[in-house]
Amino acid sequence: MSKGPGLFADIGKKGRDLLTRDYNTDHKFSISTNTLSGVALTSTVLRKGVVHAADVSTQYKYRNALFDVKIDTDSNVMTTITITEILPSTKAIASFKVPDYNSSKLEVQYFHDHATVTATAALKQNPLVDLTATLGSPTISFGAEAGYDTTSRSFTKYNFGISVTKPDKCASVILGDKADSIKASYLQHLDESKRSAAVGEVYRKFSTNENHEVLPKSIVTISGEIDTKTLDKYPRFGLSLALKP
Predict the structure, then answer these.
(1) The overall pTM is greater than 0.90
(2) Span 73-108, pLDDT tens digits
(3) Which superkingdom (predicted)?
(4) Can you name the residues that pair with 48 across neighbouring β-strands?
(5) Which of 40, 215, 222, 244 is spaced 20 to 30 A from 106 at the CA atom?
């Protein structure tokens, strides 16, 4: 694969993962093992209050194909097949769920040194189609995303984003909800080993004039400035805090 810009879904992902990923207040127990044939098996038991859930997943890689199957206690069977280099610089991902066949979908990703393109379609008679495109480099990238409903023949979403990534920091701005909201995030690593980091995120919805309140009656605003003619220079960012009595 190329070393160009990431996918549109990667814009703001580092900060988002640090804020929300893998935080679990429930009781969880997992056991993983690998067989000599290369099959990875994982068993997980999760307790939420008085409710227990469990699943068993298996993963197997054969040449350029990766097979992932998960079975849970609700008799759901989820299968994901990922094939890399099905065409040059192209990856295909097919996912199926039994008995919910309507959730099946097919995604194709294309990677170039200066662009990435993805197309996703639900595997049903009148599918929803999602398209994304990202232009730029690993340092700075611009992206757009659109969703189209073939039944109503209307756009379900269109979003835009920009991401700036440096070795010790990254920042992103996403214009979402059909250009009705804006979300900005900034992540700063605090040491060279990148074991600790600080991240901030603000959100504003234009139609309802909603802001991101860190505390009741307190609003944070972040602004940024990027000179596209001198990308080797660091972007400038501003931070303000408004307190309401």
Answers:
(1) no
(2) 988 999 999 999 989 999 999 999 998 888 899 999
(3) Eukaryota
(4) 51
(5) 40
